[in-house]
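Ops channel
N.P.: pipeline sanity check, posting one input/output pair.
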C-alpha cells in the first residue's frame, strides 16, 4: 500500500514488481522524485515506452525487513496480511488491508469462500497480535 507521506522509496531500496498476472520479478529504482500527489520513478529494467507500458497495474513491493521495527501497539498493514481472525472461533484470514477515507479495514477471506470487511476500530478489534499472527474481534460487522 502506498503511503504518500513515506520517504522510503526515495532511498531507492531493493524492490520487486508484482505483475497483474501474479508473477513477481526483482527490479531496481534508478530515479525517484516527488511530484504533487505521487512519486515519479524510473526502473532499471525499463528502456523504452513498450517496457513501461508492460508495467501497467504492476505493484512495487519492498521487503518487510526494509521497514524496520515499530513501537509497541503499532504495525504496518503488511504485518496483518495472513493473520488469523477470531471471534470466539476462527472466522478466516486477512487477505489484505483496505484503505477508506474514514478508516482502514481488514479484508477477511472465510473458509467457505465468502469475504468479510472488518473496520480497524475499537468497536470491532479487541486485540492485534502481530507476533502470534492473530486478530481477535469484539464484534462482527453486519
Amino acid at each position: 500500500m502506498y503511503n504518500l507521506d513515506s520517504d522510503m522509496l526515495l532511498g531507492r531500496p531493493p524492490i520487486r514488481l508484482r505483475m497483474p498476472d501474479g508473477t513477481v520479478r526483482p527490479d531496481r529504482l534508478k530515479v525517484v522524485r516527488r511530484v504533487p500527489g505521487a512519486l515519479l520513478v524510473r526502473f532499471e529494467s525499463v528502456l523504452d515506452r513498450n517496457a513501461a507500458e508492460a508495467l501497467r497495474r504492476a505493484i512495487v513491493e519492498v521487503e518487510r525487513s526494509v521497514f524496520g521495527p515499530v513501537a509497541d501497539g503499532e504495525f504496518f498493514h503488511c504485518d496483518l496480511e495472513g493473520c488469523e481472525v477470531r471471534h470466539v472461533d476462527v472466522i478466516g484470514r486477512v487477505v489484505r488491508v483496505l484503505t477508506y477515507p474514514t478508516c482502514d479495514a481488514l479484508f477477511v477471506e472465510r473458509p467457505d469462500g465468502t469475504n468479510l470487511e472488518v473496520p480497524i476500530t475499537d468497536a470491532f478489534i479487541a486485540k492485534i497480535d502481530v507476533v502470534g499472527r492473530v486478530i481477535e474481534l469484539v464484534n462482527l460487522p453486519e
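N.P.: looks fine end to end. The longest strand covers residues 89-99.
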